[in-house]
Fold each of these.
Amino acid sequence: PNQVEALLEFEGDVFESEDQRNWSDSSYKTYSTPVGIPFPVIVDPGDVVEQKVRLSVGNKSFTEKEDRVANEFNEQRIPFPALGYTRNSLPLSEFHISMLKQIIFDHYRVEIDFKTRWIEQLNSAYQESDELNTNLELCVFFDDYISEFEQLRQLINTQIKSLLILQKGGSVIDPSLFDYIIPRIRTEFPWIKIGSGTNNHFVDINRSRIIDPRLDFISYGATPQAHLPFSNILIENLEAFQYPITTIRSFSDKNIHISPITLKARDYPTHTIDNRQHTEFIADWTAICLKYLAGASHLTLFETIGSKGIINEHGPSPVYDLLKKITDFNPKFIIKTKVDFPLEKDKVILENEKGDRMTIEAVFKTGLK
């Protein structure tokens, strides 16, 4: 038997490759000139840029032993993560509360921006979390952190389970912000888990890999559409969700929170609604998403209600139905297995405390756009 071997040769201008798994995409981008030269490159009239790319494809023989090793795969048994959802500005009705209490609901993600009506929003979140019988994951964007924290600390109570510390307008946290806030949280509110990272893509963490040892967890957001919006891309990018977790484990053993998980990238706030949100396709996508995010301790899936939620104006969406099915089974582990053609059909296997297993299959239609 033969395998295909491809040789790619470059000449002329310097090329650079970008590993887009940093953005949860299963792809690479190669371009010139490198962005560090700097970006953008100024090309004046009359400048000459020479480039040449040569691709050679041929057969490569391999041994039976190599083939056997390549296809070996051991089943992995990984603890099922804590699942929560993001709060939005829409009020929760009694119907919403009733439906949300029927599914796994570990935490209610609430974002605090001190330039908004944040006190009113936090008080509403407290009331809703009490009705939902869940805790808050507080994501706080600090700027003038001393005065802002002093305001916040007056309103902190035992409903807050975790605090995600972020710096407004930047991907790198000023160490003095940690120096001020972390000791005060530890002393006054010792039950609160403290984390940091980014509200955006994993790349912000991977560029520095500077993890303060005082943190309890590392957090980043995930989306399958950082670059392209097509349905087949959403399927292809599922596999890439596992790689940031593997990378973090190479330099940190802290708990990993992936929060929030959204269909659309949040880089462009006016373009965050995806019309596929309330479809069977996204329910299947979400099920397989759980498989590839196995290893994270904490996932925040979508919003509770609305156009980006698990409940829409007509009632529970297919994603909600999936979560209800999972809740009724009460899984303790994800059994991570390999499938032959994941772009066509994939599956996630769950195991409960009795050792019973439930398999959820996703059949992806070919030709999706």
Amino acid sequence: MSARAVIETYEFSSTELEERYQQMSAELRCPKCQNQNIADSNAPIAKDLRRILYQQLESGASDEQILDYMVSRYGEFVRYRPEFSGATAVLWLAPLILLVMAAVVVVIALRRPRDVEDQPAQALSADEQQRLKTLVEKAERDT
């Protein structure tokens, strides 16, 4: 099996633009690969996104303008760190909500009696005692 690596070379007009390119390509998610950034992905769409990123950097677009363009075209999913909004609130708050829910479950579990032995025994009624006596006698006869 041969390893495939992303090999693309772009001629940047300054080292600052090249550094911004490296940083932004690591922060943008490949829409096809989902768990890879566009810098590491070999997917054709990642190649297109790298080309667009290069062109926009060279044309003088700010990082915010580039991110806005990518989000408008591919959705908030293209960002590894989506902005906090009504649509992404669940993504940002889910860990906190799950932590609180886990703490509640632990508190409830610790407050419950652990064994039946810890509970006080209840006396049997006369009917229950008679039924138990009958069952024991029947079990002794069968054995």
